[in-house]
Every structure is written in structure tokens, then in C-alpha cells.
Amino acid sequence: xxxxxxxxxxxxTAMSGAGAVRDAFERLAHDTSARPLLVGLDFDGTLAPLQxxxxxxxxxPAGVEPLRTLVATPGVALALVSGRALHELHELxxxxxxxxxxxxxxxxxARVTRHGLDxxxxxLSDEQADRLAELGARASQVARGRDGVWVETKPTAVVVHxxxxxxxxxxxxxxxxLALGDELGSGVLHGKDVVEISVLHASxxxxxxxxxxxxxxxxxxxxxxxxxxxxxxxxxxxxDVAVKVGDGExxxxxxxxxxxxxxxxxxxxAEALTA
Length: 275
Ligand SMILES: O=P(O)(O)OC[C@H]1O[C@H](O[C@H]2O[C@H](CO)[C@@H](O)[C@H](O)[C@H]2O)[C@H](O)[C@@H](O)[C@@H]1O
Known about the structure:
Keywords: Hydrolase, Magnesium, Metal-binding. This protein has 275 residues and is an alpha/beta fold. It has helices at 18-30, 61-72, 86-93, 126-143, 167-184, 204-215, 230-233, 259-274; strands spanning 37-41, 76-81, 100-103, 108-113, 116-120, 150-153, 157-161, 187-191, 194-198, 219-224, 241-245, 254-256. It contains 8 helices and 12 strands. The termini are far apart.
């Protein structure tokens, strides 16, 4: 039933080096034809270092001010594009008013306003809601008896987390979760120590492309760390800027070593935009 989205093998090796991303961002800031500019950023592993407990994830302090500057710059739009449930992304990311939030890998969308979230509400059909409930129950069975494996429930998906489990338990749980996704899901994402089974078709790539079209963005910057971010890289053009954060195969042309390096490059972008 499902479509597994993590197996689309990225092919190229990104250009690394602390200066490469910063240089590309600075060039973009000085190129006035690159407006409207849309900056899309993944959250976990990109703006926020990975944590054993997802509730503890926070944007790096050095990233807060650059994001404010991006949103305040005419001709520039900021979007966080995450697998997180929208309400959770809003709470954890603490982004400025005006930021677009894309949650649940594209299934949810909102804009941050002074009065809270202006959001599109996700409506599950009865069939989808029933399937989500069944997925939750079946995912709990996958976790049962496996130390460190636990289940997160989101508005459109369940996630089997394995970061805290020993290798055999993690592998066993991931393999059973993938099979469960094939049986009952509409889409399966195999990310970093997570298998996410959704009852809706959605992807970061489709959501990013829709936002780009709405805003009429001429250039898009997108940065992300996980295999699920490859779907966003895949919709970019040769004029856009794709940045893989951390290790791993990717179709992105540039690579930042970690969230610290990415955030430093965002600071350079913000500074160049206001110079
Ligand atoms: O698209 P993202 O913003 O990267 O969100 C993807 C998933 O993020 C969370 O899991 C990941 O981060 C956790 C906290 O650092 C980490 O413990 C886990 O191993 C990572 O996969 C979140 O819990 C998931 O629901 C998101 O889909």
C-alpha cells in the first residue's frame, strides 16, 4: 500500500569545506536578481543538533538572530520544513513572526503571526483516522519488549524511534516498522533512527515546490541533514542552492559539516543581506 521514500538513492558527492556554503550564501545575498528568495531549512539535525529525547531539541542560539534578519529582509522569505508535527515545530523552533512552517513532512502548513499560527487544518478521512489508530496500536507491538524503542504519534503519522536501542533491537524494530508501513501506510520514511508511517501522501519536496510557486521565488536555498530532505533537494533547480548538513550520500551540491557550520553560514548570509 505504501510508497517508501527513503530509497531514492542520491548520487553526487557534495562540495565540503567551511567556506563553501558561506561563499555561496554571500554571493546570493549580493545578487539582486535572486529575489524573491526563499530560504527553506530543516529543523532536527540542521538548525538543532540531534538529541536522544526529541522534546529537548532547540535551535542553536547562534541561529536565532540570523533567522530574524532573513524574515525582516524585503524580498526574502523563510520556511522551516520539518517532519515534526506543526504545533511541536512551532513550540521548539521559536521562529520569528512571518516564518512559514511546513510540518509532518509537508502534510501540515502554517505561517507564524503575532497572534499564533495561521494554519491549514489537516482533515483526515474516517478511513485515514482509523488507519492511524491501527498503526499506533501495531507500532506499539513493534516496540514492545525492545528496550529503547518507542512510538511517537503525530497528526498524520506514527514514528517508531530506535536511537536509544541496541543495534539488534533497532534493526528488528525498523524492519518490522517498514513492513507495517508497506501493509498499512500511505507513505514510509526511513530517517535517522526513525521509521515514520504516514496515512497521507506528502513530501517535503512537494510542499517546498508549492510554497515556491505561491511566493514566486526565483531562487530557493534549502538545507537539511536527513534522507527525507533529499525530496526537497530533488525539486531544486541548478540556480538554487542545496546544502546537505553532516555525513551521507546526497544530491546536494554543498555540504556543511554540522548545524554549527550551517548556522554560521546563515549568519554570514544575514549579514551580507543587511550590508
Ligand atoms: O524533518 P526534521 O525536522 O529533521 O524532523 C524529522 C524527525 O525529527 C525528530 O526525530 C529526529 O530528531 C530527534 C531529536 O533530535 C532524534 O531523537 C531522532 O532520532 C531523529 O530522527 C522527530 O522526533 C520526528 O518526528 C521527525 O519526523
